[in-house]
Amino acid sequence: MRYRISELAKKCSVNKETIRYYEKIELLSDPSRTDSGYRVYSDDTVNRINFIKRMRDLGFSLAEINKLLGVVDKDRERCSDMYDFVSRKIDEVQDKIRDLKRIEHMLMKLKKCCPDEKSLHECPIIETLMNGK
What is the pTM of this model? Predict the structure, then answer.
């Protein structure tokens, strides 16, 4: 299939400006154009945009996504340090997991401060936070 930019944007649930930005930062290659100058995209572009969106949802930066796409595109220069990239990303994810576990533990402690009387005038959770206990 071939899509104009507005059709591609709708199909991928993104803004046309997002597509243009991805082209500008070279996450997407320059599209072919019709004789009248309209951009025309293929299903490969649909798949690539969906990949980018999924990686963004997982917390990857656009620079990291660019590196991953370099591997997909078989760019040897970008591929050479992929092991280090993956190792750093694992460390970042593990740090986030530790932070989330600390937050969970703190919230569970705060929840224990509450006597389950949700209509109290003074909230023991807020008091605990305010007093830094």
Answer: 0.68
